[in-house]
Amino acid sequence: MSCLVNRDLLEPLTTEQGILNAGMFAPVGLLATLATRRAVGPLVGGFLLTSTIETFQGIFTFLGRGCDTSDLEMNFLGTAAGVTCGWLIVHFEDRGRKFWNPLERRNGIAAVASFAFLSVAWITLITPEKVDHTVGIGRADSQQRTAIEEAVRDAFGDHYEILDMQFAAGQSGAGTVMASFKEGFAELSWPDRRKFTASLDMSDTGQPSGFPVSGNSTVPANANDAEKIASLYARSHAAWGIKEAQTTASAVGSEAELGWMISWRRRDANGVLMPMRLDIQVDRTGRVSQLIMLDIPDPSVTSPSIAKADAVKEVLKQVKLGAPGLENKAGAELLAQQVSGQWRPCWLVTGKHSDTSFSGTVDAISGKVITSDAQRGGGGEAND
């Protein structure tokens, strides 16, 4: 039983959910003030009401709702706004009435008892989880708006008109800037701005909504045609992704009804897969319909010293699987991964035995298992 305690008091003021929470409680404060012709009572009562709701949500998890101080904050601000509006009406009718009329004795006792009950519940039953931000969606600030506008312009010129820009914040301050337009949407990682994705097949007009590649007049009939179109786009908009990279093409849909996905990946001299990524989906009309760009400069990683077989053995040992010959059935990919803030070569091991799927990541220099996981019969066991 826990409750998120959001340190960022301004965040809920910028989210749609926060505004809705305030709007939901504004009528409570307004009507209570008009009914009692007092202000203090509705303010205290509104705070107790929202506190009780959040406390019960934190204690009774089967309700399917979470306890969050951001909700409490916005509910109370909504109540206060309603009380203020109500008091202005009351004051206009009776200018001699005081705003801070004290609570009646019995109401004061009830309020103190409620505060005591909620305090005991929080101390004994609820564990506060302090976070810098809650995972929510709010308005993008000026820097974020500028960043997503530039990213969309770099990818598609002035072809799409951005209708709305929002920011989905994570708990560490990082997050995703999102732009929506009639034909689809785009997302940009924040604050590094390294990853840009776009989906351009959202139009319901029946007309092609993908991005037309400048200089192309071909309607692709196969993967080779699609690769030529994707390469034409990449040379103009993502030249960093195709330099010295390996290209693969795969159909999207059993019969390529959604086109083809063209992907570029790069490896160093030791065969270590670099973190950069470029994926361009070309639809049947020859337009770009999906885009994933992860622009990360190739890191310099130490030559791996742990063999694939040894990495597989370490993962199998960690997940407690030891069937004969299982080492030969597991797959492993050598890739560059950040470990404690440093780029290192790592083996990504995956495989399946009977009803158990397993995976793990092994440092290809030290041989240490970084992560491991085994999923058995629909359930799962995980080890870190």
Q: Which keywords apply here?
A:
384 residues; alpha+beta; ten-stranded antiparallel β-sheet; five-stranded antiparallel β-sheet; 35% helix; disordered C terminus
Detailed description of the structure:
It is built from nine helices and 18 strands. By secondary structure, the chain is α+β, with helices and mostly antiparallel strands. Helix 1 (16-36) packs across helix 2 and helix 2 packs parallel to helix 4.
How many helical elements?
9
- pLDDT < 50 runs, ≥5 residues: 378-384
Biggest sheet character: 10 strands, antiparallel
Structural class: alpha+beta
* Structural Rg: 28 Å
Quick one: overall form? extended
What oligomeric assembly is this protein in? single chain
**Share of residues in helices:** 25-40%
Mean pLDDT: 85
Euclidean distance between termini CA atoms: 24 Å
What would a concise description of this structure say?
By secondary structure, this protein is an alpha+beta fold. It is built from nine helices and 18 strands.
SSE topology sketch:
Elements: E1 2-6, H1 16-36, H2 40-59, E2 67-68, H3 69-93, H4 105-125, E3 127-131, E4 136-139, H5 142-156, E5 162-169, E6 175-181, E7 184-190, E8 195-199, E9 211-212, H6 223-237, H7 239-242, E10 246-251, E11 260-265, E12 277-282, E13 287-294, H8 308-318, H9 326-329, E14 331-339, E15 342-353, E16 356-363, E17 369-376, E18 381-383
Helix pairs in contact: 1-2, 1-3, 2-3, 2-4
